[in-house]
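Render Propionyl-CoA carboxylase alpha chain in 3D.
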Amino acid sequence: MIRRLLVADRGETARRVFATCRLVGVETVAVYSGADSDAPHVGEADYAVRLDGGTPRSSYLRGDLIITAAQRSGANAIHPGIGELAEDPDFASAVADAGMIWVGAPAKTLGVLRSKRETKALVAEARVPVLPSFTDPSEVPGFPVLIKPDTGAGGAGLRVVRDAATLLEALASTRREVGGEVYCEPYVEDVRHIEVPIIADEHGAVIPFGERECSIQRRYQKIVEETPSPAVDPGLREELCRAAIVTVRALGYVGAGAVEFLLDTNGDFWFLELTPTLQAEHAVTECVSGYDLVRLQLLVSEGGSLPMPGPPPIRGHAIEVRLCAEDPAYAWLPATGTLHRFAVPDVAGRFRPLPAPGLRLDAGVRDGSVIGVHHDSTLAKLIAWAPTRQEAARMLASALTRAQIHGVATNRDLLVRALRHHAFRTGDVDTGFLDRRPEVFAPLLSAVDAVRLSCLAAALAGAAARRASATVLGSMPSGWRNVPSGSQTAVYDGPTGPVEVGYRMNRHGELAGWWVRTVDPEELDLAGLGQAPVAGDYPETVVVQAGDERVVLDVNGIRLTFNVHRVGEVSYVDSPEGSVALRGLSRFPLPAPDAVEGSLIAPLPGAVRRVLVVPGQRVRAGELLLTLEAMKLEHPVHAPSAGVVASLPVHPGTEVDTGELLAVLAPE
């Protein structure tokens, strides 16, 4: 019987498990690194143990430290979370050897799952459809093919090859990148990623929970999940669930997990893998089934029998999006910094199945959380449940639009556009959804007036804040102090670059005119700024209210409210039209230092993982020089042109910040 449970994970995963433990009367233990001492999951546990080491590899992924922490805290069970430890057979064995209950898949099964090719062979013997695998390039019958590492997860090392001429080089390059064996399998175009979540107990019961559609992905990682899939009818659902049950029994699996498949346009499907964890998208399954999957996990790990006789019925529709700290417009580069505000409106449930149509938020962050480079970029998962798919999508998109997420760049706008896209609304999705639809990456605030009005609101709020500050200091009375013939101006770095916003007030304190215009960054110190443009197409605007945090404008007879949150030089402006971050700029910026010609600088903060060249080495244009690891993703740094490596000041393990020098290439 589980009495006290240590969760070997962090963020929303740990908080999710703790929520169920509180309901069933199990005491909880959190683990944390030094950087996470103030993290929400630490404060929610009954006990917490600090782990030495500042990176995940030296803290959260150290199985020996986790077991020691469990012993010190009096825990008699360990939940591995949803990360690498949940898939590590050695860690599972060590937990059992220490005399504790393991809330996960059996170590023997995890050992089999470690090799994707071995797993596929066993599943094929059970007559579940699988794609053929090839390790010998001469055996590849045709193209395109997908190169895959035999071990690992998260989409690392996957590469599509479309002709025989590049196959050998691609295989060798992938082996170097992943540091292990690789193989090929046919690459199926226009395919969906479908998975069947399951729970299996040690008494032979295997319960599938319908299917989840996980096709909208970036870099082979899911960002939108839903259940049921719009492409799966009752007959196909029965086939998928039957194949999942056969797979689970063939592999001797016990616990919570998901059997993943590829599904083509003809309705044919192939086994992809069995993921031996609760999975990040488990919330949508809880919403449509009404079952607490963590509770079932705990029950099975204690040797209990599953309480349902068969698959539960599916009620309504649930969609989940993953809010990530990253910039989709710049190759999904991770974003770091302080999360100054994190607020999602109208959230009815947290970590629990929803009893009625509404929103559920599974978050590992809060106001003031520091987003670093060492962990996954996911900030939170927002889930909508409604009787129909259209209602769930509309509700989720609306909540995302009205959310206030200040301090780091996120994929929020892209998620909104994806949910509102005609192809998504009609169920026309597959794993290439984002690749074929560049319009999803366009700025959410496409209307010029929406951006310009946000700039005006920021300027008005800034002026109100300065007046309030001056009043407190006693230097001037409150109220408008604008000279009727003069202009008030501010310069911001906005979504499309530097802009100047200006406005004039009349003697009655009414807005007499305003403008927003693009500014050349090299001309910020010119005297022409501050002068009103000769002409401009600006809507008739009346200032209804102009406070330091709230500005209300009447625009052509339509009233809009802008909430302005200022942090330092940045104004975060939220309105019904979306959110804009505006950084105040000086009219007289300091000159930037000249960089050495041929310098390659870090595009993001992170740690150098691998260095594939040495000083003096000749390289080709596009050749991989090194990789940076940030937020559990590996980011390649390629040579922009042919040349010679003149300088290489970094080595594996070097921590770099954005803009730091990685290498210098000299022309041949």
